[in-house]
Amino acid sequence: MRPAAHRTGPAGGRLDPIGRAFPIAPPRSEGEDRSGLSAGLRLAISDTIDLPELMPRRQGPDRGENPAMKSDRRSPIERMARIAMLLGVAHLTLAGALPAQDTKQDQEQEAPPAARPRGVPQIRGGQGDNPQADAEEAPPGGLRLPPENPPGEIAAGPAADPLGPAAMPADAARPPVARPADPNMPIVPQWPFRYELTIASFDGAPLAVRYYPSQLGSTAPVVLLVHDLGPGRSSQDFDAAVADLENQGIATHLQQLDYAVLAVDLRGHGQSPARSRGSVGNPLLRWIGDLQAAYRFLLDRHNRRELNLAKFAVVALGDGANLAAHWATAPGGAVSIEGRTSDLAAMVLISPRPTLNDRPIEPAVTALAPRLPILLQAGAGDAERSALADALRPTIERQRLSRVTLTETRLPATNLLRFAPEATTPLIEFLDTTVKVRADEWEPRYNLDPVVYTNVRVTNLNDEAEAEAQPAAAPRPPQPPAEANEADGPGRSS
User: Fold this and answer.
1) Of 55, 33, 57, nearest to 44 (Cα)?
2) DSSP string, 327-357
3) Which pLDDT does position 133 carry in this prediction?
4) How far apart are CA 226 and CA 199, in angstroms?
């Protein structure tokens, strides 16, 4: 098929093969090229079709025909396909040439890296003293670098530890350990020691806690001590002398066995006021929130590698045992973040009641028994609590490490642990075989809720024992309560 010739149109223009007129490009000076294409690309296009905008007109002897077109034996479809391909290459070449030119200009105007500030994009002020800075615009999209010296100094690592010594002086310059006669002098922790401080519960209510750190650090097992509920009960019950432990408190004894220990004053007990905020009117729910706040404190110490929450146990007395069981079965109890399982590895329930605030303990224990080892301990002479222990025995002892123990005494809860002969032996053995021997490696936990500490005080336990000692009198073992007071009254435990 013979290609159609270019014909002359009106006003000096030319007609394309289908009769459409387009103007002839004006003459250019020698060497001028306004097409933006390379010479090789223009030659390739000119071999396919005569484009007057790209090359001078070439006329042949036969009525202006292009000799290249005359000798081209390709079909129109093949020529059009080649034209489309070459136009696409031209488009890509133009698109790539513009950013390259802009980049070259930016490199010429860019300051040396050492003199370039790492500031955030500035907001236009319009009437500022520095018009050049006011006219600076933020780069489109992407992350913004923080300023080199931001206000308030962005932290480069974890927050400062409220329990860590701030700028502790050298050993030779350290002040002496404080004595009761000189309470204003700073106290340097000397092993063994404990922290007494205040944390905030879920609703902001202050909770007094006692924290006994371990020397094992990130491999240390940890025990949360929950006292009985009622007048006169507090975390100090775990510092009271225990006959079986050579008049040591259970908290101090566990610390010497390399456990990290936390004892909390539930609201309305000890040094924790009874105030509450929000719409939570059920005291049981408020106490459950207090236990979760104590767990959050342990979570913070875990992330500081002071203990290992994979070796976490709870020891609870009396009504506090009922409370601990309900907390462990509540959604989110002892759970660091949604999606994880509970960190509880074992529970010790000493003299729980059948019900607390009209909520029975049996469903909670039934739910916990398949999940973790449980030690339930009660006095054989306490009819109500020993009957509960016998009723729960088949459920609890299905787990290989769980067991129910009855001690030959009528004493309940706190007094059972302090005065009953060999009452602490099954407790210590149970903790050693369920949490202390666990081989779980330390791993960080997410803690999205900040833990705030106030009223931090350090007590060196050896100095406390020396201050309480009476040199003139021989130490006197603790005495159990009178026989008339052994049994509990209605709604009260000791």
Assistant:
1) 55
2) HHHSTTTT-SSTTSPP-EEEEEEES--SEET
3) 44
4) 16
Please state, in angstroms and rounded to a whole number, the distance separating the CA atoms of residues 40 and 261: 82
Residues with Cβ within 8 Å of 201's Cβ and at least 6 positions away in sequence, in order, are 207, 267, 286, 289, 290, 293
Query: DSSP per residue over 54-101, as a string?
Result: TS-----TTTT--HHHHT--S-HHHHHHHHHHHHHHHHHHHHHHHHHH
| Residue whose C-alpha is closest to residue 48's, from 71, 32, 31, 16 | 71
Q: Rounded distance, CA 238 to CA 320, Å?
A: 13
Q: How many helices (H) and strands (E) does the chain have?
A: 12, 14
The pLDDT of residue 29 is above 90: no
Query: b/e per residue, 351-363, with b = 16+ CB within 10 A?
Result: bbbeebeeeebee
Check residue 304 and give its pLDDT.
92
Largest CA distance in the chain: 137
Tally the C-alpha atoms within 13 A of residue 305's C-alpha that lie toward its C-beta. 2
Place of tokens 């010429």: 108
Task: Give the tokens for residue 484.
Answer: 């008339």
Task: Look at residue 45 and tell me whether its pLDDT is greater than 60.
Answer: no
**Residue 464, exposed/middle/buried by CB under 10 A (0-12, 13-18, 19+)?**
middle
Give backbone dihedrals phi and psi of 197, rounded to 5 degrees, phi first: -150, 180
∠ CA 295-358-489 to the nearest 5 degrees?
95
The SS3 call for residue 274 is coil
Whole-number Å distance between alpha carbons of 49 and 55: 10
Contact 293, 285 (CB under 8 A): no
Distance CA 308, CA 253 (A): 19
The residues near 15 (Cβ < 8 Å, ≥ 6 apart) are 6, 7, 8, 9, 21
**Which single residue is written with the structure tokens 């040396």?**
112
Dihedrals phi, psi of 202, to nearest 5 degrees: -60, -30
CA separation for the pair 417, 423 (Å, rounded): 6
The answer to whether the pTM exceeds 0.85 is no
The sign of the CA dihedral 59, 60, 61, 62 is: negative
Q: Give residue-wise pLDDT tens across range 95-114.
A: 655 544 454 455 555 444 44
